[in-house]
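Q: How would the structure tokens look for this protein?
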Amino acid sequence: MTRRLPPASCSVVCYNNPAPQLARVLASVTASLPSIRPYVVDNSALPVLAPVARRYGAHYSHLPHNPGYGGGHNHAIGDALARGSAYHFVLNPDIYIAVGDLGAMLQFMERHRDVGLMSPRVHYPDGRLQTLCKLLPNPVDMLLRRLLPALHRSSGRQALYELHHSGYDRLMEVPALSGCFLLLRADVVRQVGLFDERFFLYFEDVDLTRRVGSVARTMYFPRLQIVHDYTRGSYRHPLLFWHHAVSALRYFNKWGWFSDPERSRVNRRVLRLLHRHKNS
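A: Here is the predicted structure in token form.
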């Protein structure tokens, strides 16, 4: 007998995204979990995506003042939790489910009440793995990653920061998960709060994962695999680079620059757990 799934919702925040891209993610999600309550928050100037959202039964909100990625999701999450969602999926418009189903993630969360946030295995469209599980960032890695990427790679700092040695093939606790796909437990969100809207774009996912991690476990769940059209936009577009830089400054101003005892403690603990699993 199949266990009844708890009430769940999802939100997709768009900004000038192509209609077929939004249709793809909504089709993928609603096929995987027909009972889900979908939200589309459109931060574009014109409400051109409304017909696509309605085709898939999604609640559509047009926010042309553009409150940012986290602000858009907050608009949906607040309504979803008020309507009784026990879990909420935060989704990029440029993803779709490749392997597994959303119900498996919900069942895992139901069985493991100490888990507050989860993220799946992520691939590029050509099948390559995206190493999006990360340690809590420090300014040195951020600067090397941006200004001296070859040195960041050759020094081994990138592999450590992105947890390459984990193999990405098992469940694991991760201090910083990617906002392209997150599953949130409603009770934990009520405890730690929504996305911090001071982060217009970038670092809002790291900040939220860190806050959730202070009260619950934050997990990587490779049984679900998605495809993400990841373009590293801040490396190509000056405005996105500006948003990335501003968010980084705000993140380190909030949590600490070179002195951040919590960052050191959390990262050491996760690396110790991964080392133990690798040698067991």
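The chain has a mean pLDDT of 94.

The longest strand covers residues 217-228.

Upvote if useful.
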